[in-house]
Amino acid sequence: MDIWSADKIALFIFFVIPGLTSIKIYGLLFPGTDKSTSDVIIDAVAYSCLNLVLCSLLSVCFGLPQFPMFLSTAVVLAASYLFLVPLATALAWRAIRYQPWMLRYLPHPGHAAWDEAFAKRGPSWIKVFLKDGTVLAGLYSTKSFATSAPCPPQIYLEQSWILNDARGFDRVKKRTNGILIVSDEIAYLEFISHDK
């Protein structure tokens, strides 16, 4: 059996690549546990078939689009089938999964509360309570970073702050480039709104 024959390569491209594209994009949107290669291939073929049905329905409903002469219709349709439609379906599925009616019937799409808390991307003052009772504080903003699943939780705060006696934010620590806190030491976090 020659796996490098043109028909087998075409079948692979046609029935695996669009599904793999959808899976990889969805994996970027919702980082989580890795699947075995055999499970990924089966899922990729299933998603590719759904992609083919969607593209077929779109072409039946709207007909084949007309492109300028310098664009080959075959190239544009192939790029759409292989990349654009899988991208659109992954983004649409993400949007659907966060709808309140969908959250009632399916498990939450996020793999960890940690990921969801930091996915909002908005600036926030954060107090980090360590297991030994120490409280660290800082600003989580555009230069800060928090890991996502499946990596263990870690957080980098771009500004490290000194707390006053009432555990309120007093002043930024001078001559520091932020603070990195690893999950082994964290007991819990407190998020405080950052009003500009």
Could you explain how this protein is built, in words?
About 45% of the residues lie in helices and about 20% in strands. It is of the alpha+beta class and about 200 residues long. The protein folds into two domains: about 5-105, no CATH class; about 115-195, SH3 type barrels (Roll), CATH 2.30.30.100. The strands form two sheets. It has a five-stranded antiparallel beta sheet with strand order 6-5-2-1-8, with no helix packed on it. Strands 3-4-7 form a three-stranded antiparallel beta sheet, with no helix packed on it. Helix 2 (about 15-30) packs across helix 3 (about 35-60). It starts with 5 loop residues before the first helix and ends with a strand.
List keywords for this structure.
6 helices, three-stranded antiparallel beta sheet, 196 residues, alpha+beta, SH3 type barrels, 2 domains, 8 strands, five-stranded antiparallel beta sheet, 20% strand
Describe the protein's topology.
Blueprint: H1 6-15, H2 17-29, H3 37-62, H4 73-97, H5 100-105, H6 113-119, E1 124-130, E2 135-140, E3 145-146, E4 154-157, E5 159-163, E6 169-172, E7 179-182, E8 186-193
Antiparallel strand pairs: 1-2, 1-8, 2-5, 3-4, 4-7, 5-6
The figure for the number of domains is 2
Major sheet characteristics: 5 strands, antiparallel
Q: How are the strands of the largest sheet arranged?
A: 6-5-2-1-8
Helix content: 40-55%
Question: What would the principal axes of the Cα set say about the shape?
Answer: elongated
The stretches of 5 or more residues where confidence is low (pLDDT under 50) are none
- Average pLDDT confidence is 80
Class per helix and strand makeup? alpha+beta
Strands, total number: 8
Task: Give the C-alpha Rg.
Answer: 24 Å
Strand proportion, as a percent range, falls in: 15-25%
User: What is the end-to-end distance?
Assistant: 65 Å
Count of alpha/pi helices = 6
Order of helices and strands: HHHHHHEEEEEEEE
